[in-house]
């Protein structure tokens, strides 16, 4: 031990030469990631900001556009619908998806043999989003083709809406598929969080006469709140970025109700080749994401409990 | 206590069946013909069983090639991600250098940028490199992975510094310390990250959709979506046979390694704690 302390003291007094060498080593170890991040993330982000202020179809001259791309997007009713659909999708998937995951995690935490259920709930997480969308297409299809609507009609006489065709309902259908495919991940994250709660704390609350609801509200929820907060931030961001399931489940070209900001970015960029417009839409998405995340971080100060 | 356990198990089983139903329905439908689906969309069992849906799907599209493409791209992505992010994580966790704190914050900030925001400029840039319609577009940009750096940094910080100091006193250089002392001690972290990177690459759809054109370069999800487009929303038997071909092998791999996979993803979801 004495040797180690001496080694550390030596390192602290390291001569200039050694510290320079440390700088070189740091540069060496960081080089691949820093280069990749600069070229493939930071530079494109900068380029996106420039493009958002240009008119450009990829072939002709770039033309300065000022704020007109942003103005065009923000006043376009189609883009307005896309923003509204993006928000609706987040409002449906985040509370319902996380609430359901929390319930299941609590149930799993109090039964024996939860391993089997964990596997069942986790299956969709590892499944390709394209295959997931195709599976659900057959279930949700309208016009007496889908399993769900045909069953509802034959067994209960209910005429259910055309989930994928009706612009008013399609967001709900997308939300259900999104919740189904991310449920397992949220369940295991919550379960891992629940397992870090010391049983003694719960036991002490029970000895003091707290019922299950009181224990949930005053012990489980506060102790789990950092995990819930983290999951909420991630869930909001990933719902803002949802694309695969929407693109395969319903092509928003045919159903405006499924248009999201990300889909607008894709369509403007890669179907219409309006690179400036597309970048402007993408930056609006980025600003919206940052704003919502900031609001969440501000709210956590009052809602999230950290020990120590 | 008994009835409560029973009720919980009943509820969890019901939920589990709901999770399983789309998979079961996919498999059953993959053996059905068009006529049966139009006449009776809710009959469970195929009548008659159309085994030829599978050879039809396999014959219509180059699924074998797509499997190989997806596999080797994912394997390269995993290798490159593990190596480069472990190196960067080591620098952040163990080497003192000027600007370390600021650089780390920049790393974390870039993680906030959704890939859809940078996709247009990235596409234009890759086109300049001549990488559009080439697998390079799916391999090289994927190296940039701030999340991976963050995750492995957490793991490296948990390795006792004394191990490394002992090695340095024995004359090991920085690289030796990294390769022979730190890496073997963060195997669980590398395993978790490897699984996450593999799944992300294997299931990725957005970038292949935009960056690839040639059918023989397609990855499995891309080929599957093109196949579904081509067949239209009618011949679900063949489309779901193709889905099953795409999905079942990964499900089997998942079932074999399920404990490890689930634990890894839960741990990384918690920030590597």
TrEMBL record, chain A:
Membrane-spanning regions, if any? 23-56, 89-108, 120-139, 169-194, 215-240, 275-299
**PROSITE patterns (alphabetical):** ABC_TM1 (PS50928)
- Protein location: Cell membrane
Q: Can the keyword Membrane be found in this entry's annotation? A: yes
* CDD domains with a match to the protein in the record: TM_PBP2 (cd06261)
Membrane topology recorded in Swiss-Prot or TrEMBL: Multi-pass membrane protein
Give the principal location in a single coarse category: membrane
Q: Name one Pfam family in it.
A: BPD_transp_1
Listed under GO cellular component are: plasma membrane
Query: What UniProt keywords are attached to this protein's entry?
Result: Cell membrane, Membrane, Sugar transport, Transmembrane, Transmembrane helix, Transport
Q: Name one GO biological process term.
A: transmembrane transport
**Gene3D superfamilies in the cross-refs:** MetI-like
Q: Which family does it belong to?
A: Belongs to the binding-protein-dependent transport system permease family.
This protein's name: Multiple sugar transport system permease protein
- Organism classification: Bacteria, Bacillati, Actinomycetota, Actinomycetes, Streptosporangiales
From TrEMBL, chain B:
The membrane-topology field of this record reads: Multi-pass membrane protein
The record ties this protein, via Gene3D superfamilies, to:
MetI-like
Location in the cell reads: Cell membrane
Q: Give the UniProt entry's GO cellular component terms.
A: plasma membrane
Family of the protein in this entry: Belongs to the binding-protein-dependent transport system permease family.
Q: Which UniProt keywords apply?
A: Cell membrane, Membrane, Sugar transport, Transmembrane, Transmembrane helix, Transport
Q: Which organism is it from?
A: Nonomuraea pusilla
Domain ABC transmembrane type-1: residue ranges: 67-257
What SUPFAM superfamilies does the record tag this protein with? MetI-like
What is the name listed in the Swiss-Prot or TrEMBL entry for this protein? Multiple sugar transport system permease protein
Q: Which InterPro entries match?
A: MetI-like (IPR000515), MetI-like_sf (IPR035906)
- Biological process per Gene Ontology, one example term: transmembrane transport
């Amino acid at each position: 031990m004495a040797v180690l302390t001496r080694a550390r003291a030596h390192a602290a007094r390291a001569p200039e030469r050694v510290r320079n060498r440390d700088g070189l080593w740091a540069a060496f170890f960081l080089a691949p990631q820093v280069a990749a991040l600069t070229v493939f993330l930071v530079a494109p982000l900068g380029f996106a900001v420039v493009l958002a202020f240009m008119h450009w179809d990829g072939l002709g001259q770039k033309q300065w556009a000022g704020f007109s791309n942003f103005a065009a997007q923000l006043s376009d009713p189609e883009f307005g619908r896309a923003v509204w659909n993006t928000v609706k999708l987040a409002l449906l998937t985040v509370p319902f998806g996380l609430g359901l995951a929390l319930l299941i995690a609590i149930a799993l935490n109090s039964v024996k043999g939860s391993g089997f259920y964990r596997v069942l709930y986790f299956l969709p997480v590892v499944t390709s989003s394209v295959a997931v969308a195709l599976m659900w297409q057959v279930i949700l299809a309208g016009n007496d083709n889908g399993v769900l609507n045909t069953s509802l009609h034959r067994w209960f006489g209910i005429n259910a809406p055309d989930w994928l065709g009706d612009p008013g309902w399609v967001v709900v259908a997308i939300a259900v598929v999104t919740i189904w495919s991310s449920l397992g991940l949220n369940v295991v994250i919550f379960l891992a969080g629940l397992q870090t709660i010391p049983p003694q704390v719960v036991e002490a609350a029970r000895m003091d006469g707290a019922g299950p609801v009181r224990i949930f509200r005053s012990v489980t929820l506060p102790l789990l709140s950092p995990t819930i907060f983290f999951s909420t931030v991630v869930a909001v961001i990933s719902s803002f970025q949802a694309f695969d399931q929407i693109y395969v489940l319903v092509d928003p070209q045919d159903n405006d109700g499924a248009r999201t900001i990300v889909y607008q970015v894709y369509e403007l960029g890669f179907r219409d080749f309006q690179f400036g417009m597309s970048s402007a839409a993408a930056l609006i998405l980025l600003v919206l994401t940052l704003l919502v995340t900031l609001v969440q971080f501000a709210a956590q100060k009052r809602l999230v409990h950290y020990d120590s | 206590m008994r009835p409560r356990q029973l009720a919980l198990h009943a509820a969890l089983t019901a939920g589990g069946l709901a999770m399983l139903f789309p998979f079961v329905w996919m498999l059953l439908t993959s053996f059905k013909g068009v006529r049966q689906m139009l006449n009776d969309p809710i009959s469970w069992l195929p009548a008659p069983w159309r085994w030829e849906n599978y050879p039809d799907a396999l014959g219509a599209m180059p699924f074998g090639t797509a499997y190989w493409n997806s596999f080797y791209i994912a394997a390269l992505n995993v290798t490159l991600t593990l190596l480069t992010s472990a190196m960067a994580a080591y620098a952040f966790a163990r080497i003192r250098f000027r600007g370390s704190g600021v650089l780390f914050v920049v790393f974390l900030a870039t993680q906030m940028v959704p890939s859809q925001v940078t996709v247009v400029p990235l596409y234009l840039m890759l086109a300049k490199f001549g990488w559009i319609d080439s697998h390079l577009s799916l391999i090289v940009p994927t190296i940039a992975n701030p999340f991976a750096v963050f995750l492995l940094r957490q793991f490296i910080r948990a390795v006792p510094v004394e191990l490394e100091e002992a090695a340095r006193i024995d004359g090991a250089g920085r690289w030796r310390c990294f390769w022979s002392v730190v890496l073997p001690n963060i195997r669980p972290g590398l395993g978790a990250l490897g699984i996450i990177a593999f799944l992300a690459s294997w299931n990725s759809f957005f970038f292949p959709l935009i960056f690839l054109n040639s059918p023989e370069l397609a990855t499995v999800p891309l080929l599957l979506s093109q196949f579904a487009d081509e067949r239209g929303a009618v011949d679900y038997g063949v489309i779901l046979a193709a889905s099953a071909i795409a999905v079942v092998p990964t499900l089997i791999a998942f079932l074999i390694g399920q404990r490890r996979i689930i634990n890894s993803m839960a741990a990384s979801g918690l920030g590597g704690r």
